[in-house]
Write a structure and sequence with these properties.
By secondary structure, the protein is mainly α. It is built from 3 helices and no strands.
Length: 77
Amino acid sequence: MRIFEPTMTHEIDVFIQELLKTVGKPINIAPRCERLATDIAGQLAFGQPLNTQTQERNRLFPKSMRAMNFVVSVYST
């Protein structure tokens, strides 16, 4: 985890920068936290930046991961 720490810190910095862009506006923090978790998991699991926090192109990943978790759970049962 110590080796991965700079990568995770970078993703958290991106998260904070995106939050700072919305100062003074009410926002729903849940999707932003989901994107942060997705970007961290993408870096940790795949070694690839998904950039869901800054680009809409890959924002399908969190929904896809939830769907796959459901399918795997059904098959496991």
